[in-house]
Amino acid sequence: MNKRINWSNSGVGREWAALAAILLALLLSGCSAGEKTVVVGSKNFTENVFLAELIAQQIERTTDYGVQRRFNLGSTFLCHQALVGGQIDVYPEYSGTALTAILKLPVEGDRKAVLARVSSAYAEQFGAEWIEPFGFNNTFAVLVRGDEPESLATISDLAAAADRYVLGFNFEFAERGDGFPGMAEAYDLKFAQQPKTMDLNLVYQALGERQIDVAVGNSTHGLIPRMGLRMLEDDQGYFPPYDAAAVVRVEALDSLPGLRLALESLSGAVGQERMQEINRRLDVEHDSVSEVASDSLDTMLGR
């Protein structure tokens, strides 16, 4: 018998408590690194951890700086606060997430415009710079199992039958500007019960075990093809672009010569298909993040 997942609906208060614990841990562990150390952070899902490890290994390969890895810090909010507070120097972020979750700006669909807007705002407000993106767009994916009728092809189709389905997604999607409230309004989604919230890494498991009928995940996740899941078309273009990029403190760039070059060498190096294959190795084959990052650098940069 499959073990059932324990659901939770805690929100902002839980985020603040987690942030306080993280910052205290970082300070106690000496995260106020010396001038020859770069502190790399990440969110708490596989793809983001991989990108952070890619950054860390490239810094180690191309500079003489030490690297402290502060991975799995938590949500967007927690990583952003750690960056602004100087507890980390760099972490991977997504343009649409920065636009809506951090800057609280309206959703827009033009990739170049979104990147320009977040880059300008981060420089002015947070003293942080967006490096040119890695090369893929990891949009939200509204997913159903492969045995659902083919007539269920778009999010508008889902809206017409929403009262027959149970929806699930991660905690952050419940509250962010490009998350469930806006999607529900845009598509007039009315489910029979409140969506279930959980850790992002459990969303796919819950869908496969039929504890939910529809899930919101990430389009590049390796379990999507492995589990035979189907992505519903965002036929009204609700979601903004989510180009992944390294976001780094300007102070770190100024004080650590060579750091910029190390980060910029990863720009355009990870295309959409490559990221899907990497996620397959991580999520399906369960290869180690460190090994996959090393292999990827060898392949992408001709090492």
Describe the structure.
With 303 residues, this protein is α/β, with parallel strands linked by helices. The protein folds into two domains: 12-137 and 242-300, D-Maltodextrin-Binding Protein, domain 2, CATH 3.40.190; 140-232, 3-Layer(aba) Sandwich (D-Maltodextrin-Binding Protein, domain 2), CATH 3.40.190. The protein has 13 helices and ten strands. Strands 7-6-8-5-9 form a five-stranded mixed β-sheet. Strands 3-10-4 form a three-stranded antiparallel β-sheet. The protein has a two-stranded parallel sheet with strand order 1-2.
List the helices and strands and how they pair.
Layout (H helix, E strand, L loop, with lengths): L11 H17 L8 E5 L4 H17 L3 E5 L5 H9 L5 E5 H8 L8 H16 L1 E3 L9 E5 L10 H6 L6 E4 L9 H8 L8 E3 L4 H6 L5 E5 L4 H4 L3 E3 L11 E6 H6 L3 H6 L7 H12 L5 H12 L3
Parallel strand pairs: 1-2, 6-7, 6-8
Antiparallel strand pairs: 3-10, 4-10, 5-8, 5-9
Helix pairs in contact: 1-3, 2-13, 4-5
- The CATH topology of the largest domain, please? D-Maltodextrin-Binding Protein, domain 2
Low-confidence stretches: 1-10, 28-34
The Rg value, from CA coordinates, equals: 19 Å
Distance between the termini: 46 Å
Q: How much strand?
A: 5-15%
- Our count of domains comes out at 2
The topology string of helices and strands comes to HEHEHEHHEEHEHEHEHEEHHHH
Helix content: 40-55%
Largest sheet: 5 strands, mixed
How many alpha or pi helices? 13
CATH A-level architecture of the largest domain: 3-Layer(aba) Sandwich
CATH superfamily of the largest domain: Periplasmic binding protein-like II
Tell me how many strands there are: 10
Kindly provide the name of the CATH class of the largest domain: Alpha Beta
Mean pLDDT: 89
